Predict the 3D structure of the following.
Amino acid sequence: MRTSIATVSLSGSLTEKLTAASRAGFDGVEIFENDLLASPLTPEEIRGRCADLGLTIDLYQPMRDIEAVPAEEFACNLRRARHKFELMRRLGADTVLVCSSVHPLAVDDDALAAEHLSQLADLAQDFGIRVAYEALAWGRHVSTYDHSWRIVEAVGHPALGTCLDSFHILSRGSDPKGIENIPGEKIFFLQLADAPLLAMDVLQWSRHYRCFPGQGGFDVAGLVRHVLHTGYDGPLSLEIFNDVFRQAEAGPTAVDAHRSLLVLKETVGLATPPAPVVPTGVAFAELVTPDAEPVSAVLGALGFARTARHRSKPVDLWELGEARVLVNTAGSARRDGTGLAAIGLESPDPAGAARRAEALLAPLLPRRRAPEDAPLDAVAAPDGTELFFCATDRPELPNWRADFVEVEHEAGPAGMHRVDHLALVQPWHHYDEATLFHRSVLGLHAQESVDVADPYGLMRSRAVTNPDGSVRIALSVGAAPTDDTVHAQHIALATDDVVAAARSYREAGGRLLPIPANYYDDLGARYEFADGELETYRELGILYDRDAHGEFRHCYTVTVGRVFFELVQRDGYRGYGAQNAPVRLAAQHVLRPGR
Ligand code: MG
Ligand code: MG
C-alpha cells in the first residue's frame, strides 16, 4: 500500500519538504495550499520536481467553507473552485480535499449541502478531478465521519467521495467500526494522525498536538483495519500539525514519519519486516571523553577495575560485576566533554536485530570501525547514540571483547551487579521519535511518560524496557527547546546494598551529590524508618522512594562532563525515582560550573 505525507507535516520550503519526503521513502505527497502559495516554483515546476523525486501528488488541500452557505457565497465558491481545479490540472493532482464548512453563515441543511457538493462535483468532473469531503471535528454542522458520508451517499456522484481523517474521527470518540459501512471506492482518501490524549479544545488539539501513528494515545491501527475491510486501496497518508515538527529539521522528521507508517503497516498485517529481536541485557556503556582521568577516578572509586585495553585504540574496559564501561578517548572532538556515546545491547540474534533496524529506517553503522575489529552489527538511535548488538559470551559469533587485551587488575568488590538503567537525554524535538524508535526497532516496551519539575524548566521522561527489566533505558527531554547539554545522561548501577556502596565510594575519594536537609525532613514526615536509617541517608545523600511493588534507595555521583552515575538498590520497586528527580536536578544545578 502506498505511503504519502502532507507537506504541512514537515518544516522548510516546499522544495525542502519534497526532498525530505522522497529521501525518507514516501511514494507521494499531499500538497498543502500554503506551501504552494509561498513557493517561487510554478505549478508545472512543482509537478516536475515531484516527478524527478519519484513522488506522486496524491491530494491538493484544503478547500474550505464550500457547502451549505448562502447562494451568493456559493457562487463565489464555484468561481474559486474553478481556479483551483485549473491550478490542479497544471500541478497534475486529481484529488482535492474539501473540509466541512465552518462558515458563520453556513446552515444546518444536509439537502443544501448535498446540492452544493453535487454542483462542485459536476465542475470537478469536467477537470477530471475527484472531491474528497472530510468532516472536521469542529465543522459547524457536519463534524462526524458518518454524517459526511450520509451527505456523500445522498449526492451519489462519481466525482464525490469522502476523506477519512483518524484525528477527526478518534478525537470525537466516534466508533470507527461504522467505517465498514462505507464502500471502499467511495473513500477517496485516508489521512492518519495520532495525538496524545488531552482534554482540550479539539481545534487547538488538532493544530498543535497531532503526532505520528504510534506516538500518541489513539488506536490508529484499529481504525486502519476498519478502513481496509472496505477495500480502500488509496494511500496511507500522514497529515500532522505539530509545533515541534514545524521547527525540527525536515529530513529526520520525514524518516520518523515513514517509520511510523512502516510500523503501522506491520501492525495491521500489510507488511512483514524482520521480527524484532528484543535485547536481553546491557553488554556495555561507552563513554567518550577528551580526558580519561576524571571519569576513570569516578569509576575507580565506584569499585570498577580497569580490566582490558582495546588492541588498537585508546579505549579502556572497566568492569564491576556484570557492569562494563568503555572509556574512549578517541572521540575527543565532542564539544561537550564526557558523554555516553554508545550502548552495547546483548542480543539473541545480532544480525537479525540489525535487519529489523534497517527495515525500519535506522541508519546502520559500519560493521567494523577499523579493519582489525570484530565485525559488529550496530545502528544509530535518533539522538545519535550508537547501539551495538552484542553476543558477549557466545563463541560462535563475533565478540566485541575479542578486540580487548586483558591488563593486570585486582578483583572488584562484591555486591555490585550490573547496569540497572541508562538515562539518555534526547534533543528536545526527538522525544516521541525516540520512544517509537526504541519500541519498534528494538522491541522494547514503553512505560508512561512522566513530567519532572526542573528549577529552570520541565523535563519529560519515559522508560523503555525489556520484559525482565535487564534492559532499561530512560529517555528524557526538556519540555521546551533548550540547550540539550543542560541535562546530563547517567548510568545507574544496581547494588544490593546502596549504603555500603555509597560509603565505599566516598571512602575511595568519590564525591556524592549533596541533597538538602529539607528533603530528609519531608521524607521523615512521609515514611517511618528504623532507628538511624534516615540519618544514614541524610549523611550520604541517599534518596528514597516506594511503589506498590517495593522500595527504592538511590544516590548520585557528581557529574563529569555530561555524565553521572547513580547507585540504586531496587527491592521490588519498578520505577526510576521520578518523585526524587526534582531534588536531584536542583542539586545538580547548584554544582554546575559557573554557578
Ligand atoms: Mg485532514
Ligand atoms: Mg536514574
Notes: The longest strand covers residues 416-425.
